[in-house]
Amino acid sequence: MRNGNRVWTCRCREKQRKEASRLQTVNIKLNVMNKLLMEEKDQLQKQVSQLVCENGCRQQQLLMHVDFFETADYSDEISELVRE
């Protein structure tokens, strides 16, 4: 029985080594994928920040144009159009 146990123990250890090796490989691949995803996330965050900034600038420009047209006095131009 002792020889049988030794054989079984050796096989069990070999299976454990193979599984540990497989898991290490999977872990390495997952770490690489995680790094790539983090880099992509950083790039996307920079793009979002830039777009938010551009959007704010455009909103300010639009508000300036709206304020200009709301405060501008067109009474002379309207009077001339009515006379024609």
UniProtKB/TrEMBL annotation:
Which UniProt keywords are present, listed alphabetically?
Answer: Coiled coil
- What does the record give under GO molecular function? DNA-binding transcription factor activity
Coiled coil recorded as keyword: yes
Q: Which InterPro entries match?
A: HD-Zip_III
Q: Which domain of life is it from?
A: Eukaryota
- Sections of the chain in a coiled coil: 27-54
State the name under which the record lists this protein: BZIP domain-containing protein
